[in-house]
Design a protein that fits this description.
This is HD domain-containing protein. GO terms for molecular function: hydrolase activity. It comes from Amphibacillus xylanus (strain ATCC 51415 / DSM 6626 / JCM 7361 / LMG 17667 / NBRC 15112 / Ep01). Keywords: Hydrolase. The protein is α+β, with helices and mostly antiparallel strands and 390 residues long. The protein folds into two domains: 97 residues, Nucleic acid-binding proteins (OB fold (Dihydrolipoamide Acetyltransferase, E2P)), CATH 2.40.50; 262 residues, no CATH class. The strands form two sheets. It has a five-stranded mixed β-barrel. Strand 4 and strand 5 form a beta hairpin. Helix 7 crosses helix 17, helix 8 packs antiparallel against helix 9 and helix 9 packs antiparallel against helix 17. The model has no long low-confidence stretch (mean pLDDT 91).
Length: 390
C-alpha cells in the first residue's frame, strides 16, 4: 500500500483526537485508606440494601484507566440528596477513601460534586492502546481484497458508521470493553480468519494449529497456578474452553472439502458485532444507526438522553447486537442498491446470526450450518479470549 492510498484511507476514516500528556488516576496504584479527589465519569448506579436492611448506593465510574467501583453510605439521608444529581449529571468530582476487600479495590465516597461540562469521551473513558491509524489501514486492506459488490458494501458501511464504529466498545464488562474495542476486535477476527484461509495445509489444519497454541497457553497458566499455589479453577482464561474449540472444529470438519469463501467470511465479520453501536450507549456515540434502521420513527426520546460511561442501551438491549447486525446488513443492501446472489445473502445472514456458536450463548440458530458459520464463531471465540488473556 503506497503513501497516496494511506492518505486516502486516513482522510476517509480519520482517527479520533486523543488526549495527550494526561495524568491518569488508577485505583490499582492506590493504598487502602488513601484519601482521593478525582474527576470521574458516572457509568451507572443503583440503591441496594446491606445485610441489616440499610440503604447504600452502588456506583460505577470510569476514567482513562478503566472502571472504578464505588459505594456511598446513607449517612443523614445522603442518598436522597444525591439521587437527583445522579439523574441529571454525568461528570463528578469525587472525594473518597480507597478500600481493599479480597484484593478488589474500590472507593467509599464522602462527597459528590457535579460538574457541568461537555464530555470528551477519551478523557474520561478507557480506550485502546493500539494505534488507530494502523488498525484502520489493516481493516481497510482486508476489505480492499473483497470482490465486487462485497467490497463496495463493506466500505460504504464502514464509511456510513465510522464516527460510531471507530470509538465503540465491543462489550461493557468482558473483552474489548473500552473505546476503540469494536474496531480492534473486528480487525482481530479478520486477522485470524485470513491466517486460516491462507494456510496451505487447509482451513481445518489451521484451526487445529491455533488450538494447539491455546493448549500451550493453558498448560503454562496451570503450571504457574500450581507453582504459585493458586486455585486451579480460576487459573486461566482458557479454562473449560479447549473442549468447546474441539467440538466446533469437529463440526467444521463436516465441510473439510469445501473452501471457505473470503467474501462471505470477511463481510460477515464486519457485520457480526456492528449491532453493538445500538446495543450499547456511551458518551460520544451518535444515534445514526437507529435513524438508518427506523427512518420513520419519532426519535425525540433519544435526543434527551443523558450519555455517560459504557452502558447497555435501554432500547438496544431489547433486541441485542446479533439481530441488529442482521437488520443492518439487510437494510444496507437496499440502501446501497447492492445486488447479491440470494444464496450469499443467506450465508452472510447465517454467519451473523450464528457467530455466538450456541443458543445458550445468544446464537439465533441451533448450530452453524456452513463452514463460514463455524469459522466466524471460532475466530470470534479465539480473539475474545486472547484479549481476556492479555
Amino acid at each position: 500500500m503506497n503513501e497516496e492510498e494511506i492518505d486516502y484511507i486516513q482522510q476517509r476514516f480519520p482517527a479520533p483526537e486523543l488526549p495527550s500528556g494526561q495524568n491518569v488516576f488508577s485505583i490499582d496504584d492506590q493504598t487502602a485508606g488513601n484519601q482521593v479527589k478525582q474527576r470521574l465519569l458516572l457509568n451507572d448506579y443503583e440503591v441496594r440494601l446491606t445485610r441489616t436492611n440499610k440503604n447504600f448506593l452502588r456506583l460505577s465510574f470510569s476514567n482513562n484507566a478503566g472502571m472504578i467501583q464505588a459505594k456511598m453510605w446513607d449517612n443523614q439521608g445522603m442518598i436522597n440528596r444525591v439521587l437527583p444529581l445522579l439523574e441529571e449529571y454525568s461528570v463528578f468530582d469525587v472525594e473518597a477513601i480507597v478500600d481493599d476487600y479480597n484484593n478488589q479495590k474500590s472507593l467509599t465516597i464522602n462527597r459528590l460534586t457535579p460538574v457541568d461540562e461537555k464530555i470528551n469521551p477519551f478523557s474520561l473513558l478507557p480506550y485502546t492502546d493500539e494505534d488507530y491509524n494502523h488498525l484502520t489501514i489493516e481493516l481497510y486492506s482486508y476489505l480492499d481484497q473483497l470482490d465486487e459488490p462485497y467490497s463496495t458494501l463493506a466500505k460504504e458501511t464502514l464509511f456510513l458508521f465510522w464516527s460510531d464504529f471507530s470509538i465503540a466498545p465491543a462489550a461493557k464488562g468482558h473483552h474489548h470493553n473500552y473505546l476503540g474495542g469494536l474496531l480492534k476486535h473486528t480487525v482481530g477476527l479478520m486477522r485470524i480468519a485470513r491466517y486460516i484461509l491462507n494456510e496451505q495445509k487447509g482451513h481445518i489444519e489451521a484451526v487445529i494449529t491455533l488450538i494447539n497454541l491455546v493448549e500451550k497457553s493453558y498448560k503454562k497458566d496451570l503450571y504457574l497456578a500450581y507453582k504459585n499455589n493458586e486455585p486451579l479453577n480460576y487459573a486461566s482464561t482458557w479454562n473449560q474452553t479447549i473442549d468447546h474449540l474441539y467440538t466446533m472444529t469437529t463440526g467444521a470438519m463436516n465441510f473439510k472439502d469445501q473452501s471457505p469463501d473470503y467474501n462471505i467470511l470477511i463481510v460477515s465479520i464486519l457485520f457480526h458485532d456492528l449491532g453493538k453501536i445500538l446495543e450499547y450507549d456511551h458518551a460520544g456515540l451518535s444515534h445514526k444507526a437507529f435513524e438508518v434502521l427506523f427512518p420513520t420513527a419519532n426519535r425525540e426520546s433519544l435526543e434527551t438522553r443523558k450519555q455517560a460511561g459504557i452502558s447497555m442501551d435501554p432500547l438496544g438491549v431489547m433486541i441485542g447486537h446479533i439481530p441488529y447486525g442482521f437488520l443492518l446488513f439487510s437494510k444496507l443492501l437496499e440502501q446501497f442498491n447492492i445486488s447479491l446472489d440470494i444464496d450469499a445473502v443467506h450465508q452472510i445472514s447465517h454467519c451473523i446470526l450464528c457467530h455466538h456458536g450456541l443458543p445458550e450463548w445468544g446464537s439465533a440458530v441451533k448450530q452453524p450450518q456452513t463452514i463460514e458459520g463455524y469459522l466466524i464463531h471460532i475466530v470470534d471465540y479465539l480473539d475474545s479470549r486472547y484479549e481476556n488473556a492479555k
